[in-house]
Specification:
64% of the residues lie in helices and 10% in strands. By secondary structure, it is α+β, with helices and mostly antiparallel strands. A five-stranded mixed β-sheet has the order 1-2-3-7-6. A two-stranded antiparallel ribbon has the order 4-5. Strand 1, helix 12 and strand 2 form a beta-alpha-beta unit. Helix 2 packs parallel to helix 6, helix 3 packs antiparallel against helix 4 and helix 12 runs antiparallel to helix 13.
Length: 439
């Protein structure tokens, strides 16, 4: 029994490369640092490994049945460690388990070549060693891609439905490999079953790798296209505000040109004592003055255009908007990123405040620099109704996905900062902090 226990315990080391592959795509979203997380994971890993090894030596059960409760416990800890992000966690976990199921059956094929009289539930140390080596090699081969590409994708993609879309593919591979496990190795020697099974496993492994790569590049293209559309929207805002500024300048120039004539006319009326005529003349003159005056919120012309646009939009909807902008020396974001981020915040705030009752129709935005950090704090009123999914706010608009706030969070995280959104009563709070870029 001791040899069986030792073999089972050694086999449980497969949890290490599997866990590493699960964590690599989500390294930037751990609730604790890797060091602290490891201190908690090691005793849990030992407890699960010893439990599984003990059960395997005491009870004659199918390997999958023995492993199921262990995997469920590991998955719960995994979800906790990544902040209960179910969509991302489930997609990555099932994807890695699909890969491990392919490697497990490859190990069974190797074990069958050396011990044809046995079966998967009586596998030897040869099975264990092959499985460990194969999983370690897979970590070396696929690990860099999952760490770089997977991490970038997990930080940018906040739409749960897209993550869930991966489950049919990875789940099918996992189910297929569980279903076709060679219970008795001797069946692999019947006709060409063994060679066919090995070929199918190789095809599955290649297919798994290709589909992960295709998923990454497809989603990234969609996200890039979405960001491009967002930038075009900001450019349109800037163009509209620019036109408004040009119109204001022309109207002001015309008013200044006519000012001397106006003063002369008023002087003549005053000398003749025509007070009523002066009043009528001034009323007509005031009507002709430019109405859409441009406010200089910031020395950044692009940001100033965006702020004027949304300030005008808010005032037009009866929303009290107050802006405090002191970001001329910020070095955290490019102009395009800053305009997009502020635009998303104000657009969401205007949408929410516009649905609130009169006392709650307000927006306050402060953009300041302290030390080497850019701070953006916004508060807006709303009707008190919020929608959340997986702990994150989503749009209350029909068909809305809440991509605006997700884009703000992604921008902050991309630059090593943070973005937090909270609500209290009928006030919604946005707090963003982004460090300056390092050369």
């Amino acid at each position: 029994m001791t040899d069986t226990f030792t073999c089972e315990f050694i086999q449980s080391l497969i949890f290490i490369p599997a866990a590493l592959l699960c964590y690599l795509p989500l390294m930037g979203q751990l609730r604790e640092g890797p060091g602290k997380l490891m201190l908690k994971a090691i005793p849990i890993f030992l407890a699960l490994s010893i439990t599984e090894s003990y059960i395997a030596t005491r009870v004659e059960l199918d390997g999958n049945i023995e492993l199921a409760p262990i995997l469920i416990a590991a998955f719960i800890f995994y979800l906790w460690s990544i902040g209960w992000q179910l969509a991302k966690g489930l997609a990555v976990f099932v994807d890695v388990m699909a890969l491990m199921s392919v490697l497990a059956n490859m190990a069974a094929m190797f074990d069958a070549s050396r011990h044809s009289q046995l079966g998967i539930n009586s596998s030897t140390i040869d099975y264990v060693i092959f499985f460990l080596i194969a999983s370690a090699l897979s970590t070396v081969v696929f690990g860099p891609f999952l760490f770089k590409a997977g991490r970038k994708l997990s930080e940018r993609l906040e739409i749960a439905a897209v993550w869930y879309m991966t489950l049919p593919f990875s789940g099918a591979i996992l189910f297929l490999n569980i279903y076709v496990r060679p219970i008795k190795y001797e069946t692999l020697y019947v006709n060409r079953i063994g060679s066919i099974a090995l070929t199918l496993l190789i095809i599955e492994l290649v297919f798994w790798a290709v589909m992960n790569i295709v998923f990454y590049y497809t989603v990234m293209e969609i996200l890039n296209a979405s960001e491009s559309l967002n930038e075009l929207r900001i450019m349109k805002v800037k163009e509209e505000q620019y036109r408004a500024q040009i119109s204001y300048v022309k109207e002001s120039a015309r008013a200044r040109h006519d000012f001397r004539q106006t003063v002369a006319t008023l002087q003549m009326m005053a000398e003749e004592g025509e007070i009523d005529s002066i009043r009528d003349y001034l009323a007509d003159y005031i009507k002709e003055l430019p109405e859409n005056e441009t406010t200089l919120y910031s020395g950044n012309s692009a940001l100033n255009a965006v702020l004027n646009y949304y300030a005008g939009d808010a005032k037009g909807k009866g929303i009290d908007i107050r802006l405090h902008i002191d970001a001329d020396k910020q070095d955290a974001l490019s102009d395009a990123e800053l305009c997009t981020l502020i635009g998303n915040l104000l657009e969401n705030a205007i949408e929410a405040a516009g649905k609130a009752d009169e006392p709650d129709r307000f927006i306050q935005l402060a953009v300041t620099v302290r030390g080497n950090w850019l701070y953006i704090v916004a508060t807006n009123g709303f009707n008190g109704q919020v929608r959340k999914k997986n702990g994150k706010y989503i749009s209350t608009k029909s068909g809305g996905s809440g991509y605006g706030l997700a884009s703000v969070r992604q921008t902050a995280m991309h630059h090593g900062g943070r973005a937090e959104f909270t609500d209290q009563g009928k006030e919604f709070h946005s707090d963003i902090a982004i460090p300056f870029r390092t050369n």
